[in-house]
Predict the 3D structure of the following.
Amino acid sequence: MMMNDQEALNLLSKYNSGTATDLEIKLLENWYSAEILKQELSESEQDFSHLKEEIWEGTLQRAKLTEHEPEISEKRQVRSNKRWYQFAAAAAVLLIGIGYLFNRHSAAQNSLSKTLEIANQITAGKNMATLTLANGQRIILSDGLKGKLAEEAGVSITKTNDGELIYTVVSKPGKAAASNSGYNTISTAAGENYQVILPDGSKIKLNALSSLKYPASFAFQTDRKVELTGEAYFEVAKDKNHPFKVKTSSQEVEVLGTHFNICSYADHASTQTTLLEGSVKVSPLHYADAKERAAHAVLLKPGEKAIQLANSITMVPADVEEAIAWKEGWFYFKSTNLHDVLSEAAKWYDLEIIYRDGVPTDRFTGKIPKNASLGKFIKLLQLSDIKFNIEGRKMIIN
């Protein structure tokens, strides 16, 4: 949309009074850019002091009011003088407005530079977790810790050089010892993930802010039952005589041997189970009666996803790449809303997200490596009009 000087003047007046809409501000900024182009200024010439002289001269020339204008009659001179004063006043206000826009742009760039500087210092998460043994002992699974950590119920617990926690059966315990072995819990904080290999050979990788509770030994148990909060990817070892069951706050997933992903964070509206291989049965836990729970259960085939909202489970085709991208070391967004995008960032970079005026409705599509700093992650946000700044570990969305 082209604007004449009067229209620009009107918008500048609204901008300066704080009543301009977002659309009007964009129009004004486009007009500002057009004025620069009309003057054919180089980048080095676009400082404000030079710009105001050029635009002042350009305004007068377009109004035919330059000092080189030929002589005219006294009557025309009076009208021209009046017109000159009108345009001079208009030009003065235009220049003031341009100053505001220039300063606003410079301030925005300075603010963004400062934000990026802070964000680049916030590094990606690590391969870490905390192991809590049945006796209450807590072990921090850091990079520096390697070798045998403990032994209980005939199972040796070892941390490998590759950063995996492995449970290995070294002797079969007596039934009494096995039943009294208790539970271990492996948990990740914000910015952590970890993989554990259970005594049956099943591999489970935990995402950030997640925990898995499991028996120290599966010996003498009719099924292999674990409890999950947060998100985990499972590669369950086949054992047709001992079903593997994953319990979350809202559902139970039963398998014999398969690969699947469960996302069951407390701050998510739904629990999602995505099947890659084999088959699983997903049952809502709301129903106390086993028959009623079985009646509402669903059977998933590979490439399907179960979405549970409250007590209702719906099966839909799954985007497998999106579901397990975190396990492969990627953020993967496909028309994902801002709240979910920043929820992922908060878990991985240990951030607190603060929305000053509600959650914007922007959606994002992109793939970002999880080993990138926060500075690289937020470049995705720069593709939108979202304004934000970072204060310590707080990301404030304005």
Remarks:
- The chain has three domains: 5-119, 126-323, 329-397.
- The first helix runs from residue 5 to 17.
- Residues 39-56, 62-80, 82-88 have pLDDT under 50 and may be disordered.
- The two ends are 28 Å apart (CA to CA).
